[in-house]
Amino acid sequence: MVITGTGTEVGKTVVTAAVAATARAAGRSVAVLKAAQTGVRPDEPGDAAEVARLAGAVTTAELARYPEPLAPATAARRAGRAPVHPHAVAEAAAKLATEHDLVLVEGAGGLLVRFDAGGGTLADAAGLLSAPVLVVTPAGLGTLNSTELTARELRSRRLDLAGVVIGSWPAAPDLAARCNLADLPDVAGAPLLGAVPAGSGGLDPAAFRTAAPHWLAPRLDGTWDAAAFQVREAPRVS
Ligand SMILES: Nc1ncnc2c1ncn2[C@@H]1O[C@H](COP(=O)(O)OP(=O)(O)OP(=O)(O)O)[C@@H](O)[C@H]1O
Ligand SMILES: C[C@H](N)[C@H](N)CCCCCC(=O)O
Ligand SMILES: [Mg+2]
């Protein structure tokens, strides 16, 4: 399962942790792959470590880390370092899938953020994997446009949009957020599969793990089907 979003800071990491915790609670082994981590120093915990902190025992992997808080292609170029190519992301995810029930691949920023100088993106990695894609979205005004753009791009690539999850659902949702519960699945052409309450990333990890399955109920009123979260095929790469 590839976890992307409408942009950066929308809650991809928190949603990844919620999905991982839910799968762990269902007895499944989980690996989290952060394709390229930017904006984090070598000695700091990255997104994969944050998922492990919140979700518990998961395998973590990170293919590259660049210190500047930029798109991976830009950060790699400025650091004079090799970029991460989509085929490397797909190969790493496929290898993890041989050893885990569920592999979650988190990108950097939104779907078309560039990883290499050739314009390779997380969407390319998802295509190589034939993996379903989960789109994390903001709750409020502005999310309909960016969610529909992301869904259209996935559809144009014949990728499988599994659904949409709201990354940070406010305690007091305004009119736009409330209306978006109906409008997001409409514009995405895919179900709204959950909403993580705002502030959940600050919960004690034990409380996070207990609560997470309840945030990810399909259409917000049932139980989450962790079986949907699997890399289905090995990547078609040489
Ligand atoms: N549900 C939530 N509970 C608590 N904090 C949240 C929640 N959603 C988002 N945040 C906060 O908002 C910020 C962005 O969240 P997050 O790191 O998950 O974004 P991201 O989409 O993974 O961004 P990136 O592109 O950098 O990977 C973080 O500071 C995070 O702590
Ligand atoms: C630094 C940040 N937190 C992410 N890791 C990278 C986000 C890149 C976004 C690029 C863009 O869409 O303009
Ligand atoms: Mg993140």
TrEMBL record:
<dbReference type="GO" id="GO:0005524">
    <property type="term" value="F:ATP binding"/>
</dbReference>
<keyword id="KW-0479">Metal-binding</keyword>
<keyword id="KW-0436">Ligase</keyword>
<dbReference type="InterPro" id="IPR004472">
    <property type="entry name" value="DTB_synth_BioD"/>
</dbReference>
<comment type="subunit">
    <text>Homodimer.</text>
</comment>
<keyword id="KW-0067">ATP-binding</keyword>
<feature type="binding site">
    <location>
        <position position="47"/>
    </location>
    <ligand>
        <name>ATP</name>
    </ligand>
</feature>
<protein>
    <recommendedName>
        <fullName>ATP-dependent dethiobiotin synthetase BioD</fullName>
        <ecNumber>6.3.3.3</ecNumber>
    </recommendedName>
</protein>
<feature type="binding site">
    <location>
        <begin position="9"/>
        <end position="14"/>
    </location>
    <ligand>
        <name>ATP</name>
    </ligand>
</feature>
<feature type="binding site">
    <location>
        <begin position="167"/>
        <end position="168"/>
    </location>
    <ligand>
        <name>ATP</name>
    </ligand>
</feature>
<feature type="binding site">
    <location>
        <position position="47"/>
    </location>
    <ligand>
        <name>Mg(2+)</name>
    </ligand>
</feature>
<dbReference type="GO" id="GO:0000287">
    <property type="term" value="F:magnesium ion binding"/>
</dbReference>
<keyword id="KW-0093">Biotin biosynthesis</keyword>
<dbReference type="InterPro" id="IPR027417">
    <property type="entry name" value="P-loop_NTPase"/>
</dbReference>
<feature type="binding site">
    <location>
        <position position="38"/>
    </location>
    <ligand>
        <name>substrate</name>
    </ligand>
</feature>
<feature type="active site">
    <location>
        <position position="34"/>
    </location>
</feature>
<feature type="binding site">
    <location>
        <position position="106"/>
    </location>
    <ligand>
        <name>Mg(2+)</name>
    </ligand>
</feature>
<feature type="binding site">
    <location>
        <begin position="106"/>
        <end position="109"/>
    </location>
    <ligand>
        <name>ATP</name>
    </ligand>
</feature>
<comment type="function">
    <text>Catalyzes a mechanistically unusual reaction, the ATP-dependent insertion of CO2 between the N7 and N8 nitrogen atoms of 7,8-diaminopelargonic acid (DAPA, also called 7,8-diammoniononanoate) to form a ureido ring.</text>
</comment>
<keyword id="KW-0547">Nucleotide-binding</keyword>
<feature type="binding site">
    <location>
        <position position="13"/>
    </location>
    <ligand>
        <name>Mg(2+)</name>
    </ligand>
</feature>
<comment type="similarity">
    <text>Belongs to the dethiobiotin synthetase family.</text>
</comment>
<keyword id="KW-0460">Magnesium</keyword>
<comment type="pathway">
    <text>Cofactor biosynthesis; biotin biosynthesis; biotin from 7,8-diaminononanoate: step 1/2.</text>
</comment>
<dbReference type="GO" id="GO:0004141">
    <property type="term" value="F:dethiobiotin synthase activity"/>
</dbReference>
<keyword id="KW-0963">Cytoplasm</keyword>
<dbReference type="Pfam" id="PF13500">
    <property type="entry name" value="AAA_26"/>
</dbReference>
<dbReference type="GO" id="GO:0009102">
    <property type="term" value="P:biotin biosynthetic process"/>
</dbReference>
<dbReference type="GO" id="GO:0005829">
    <property type="term" value="C:cytosol"/>
</dbReference>
